[in-house]
Amino acid sequence: MSVFDELNAQYAKFDAAINLQCHLLVKSIGELAIGFEKYLELPHIHWFQEGGKRGDRYVRLGTGTPKTFKEQAWPTYTALDGVVSFSLALTLTDSESGSPRFHFVFEGTVQFGQDGYEYRFNGLEAPVILSAVEVESGDFKKVCDELVFLLKSRINPESILIKKGN
């Protein structure tokens, strides 16, 4: 085998490894969105507008910031240097009407690290690390716990400064 043929064969294996890495990371964010829905124990997958018209899903996978969020199906993501960037949107609704009240967007990334999958989100200091076994079994509880903690800290009523005269 020539050196050129060796390089071509090695590149084919390298390219296959990159594609597998991307597929596993991208698939994990789709599974995370489903896992977050289950974790939240939603009344329905979609919220409903007044009059019963179905709205969006409570949990949506996409890209962008809170102002630019755009829903995107998980198979359409790609990795850049082994990192997949994504956003997860959660809609909170009025308990009486079911109308959307608040959309919160978690901006994150996922990549492989020494101990497994590393999920990083804006607002969290450290990555949430899941083993390959946890991801493959759909156990995203550690990530969901951190997302709920982050959201609760953002919507904490005690953080609102209120001054009264009495």
End-to-end separation: 89 Å
Oligomeric state, counting identical vs distinct chains:
single chain
Structural class by helix and strand composition? alpha+beta
SSE pattern: HEEEEEEEEHH
What integer is the average pLDDT? 92
Number of domains: 1
What order do the strands of the largest sheet run in, or round the barrel if closed?
A: 4-3-5-6-7-8
* Helix residue percentage: 25-40%
Rounded to an integer in angstroms, the radius of gyration calculated over CA atoms is 20 Å
Put simply, the count of helices is 3
Could you characterize the architecture of this molecule?
The chain is α+β, with helices and mostly antiparallel strands and 166 residues long. Helix content is 34%, strand content 29%. It contains 3 helices and 8 strands. The longest helix is centred in the N-terminal third of the chain and has 38 residues. It starts with a helix and ends in a 12-residue tail after the last helix.
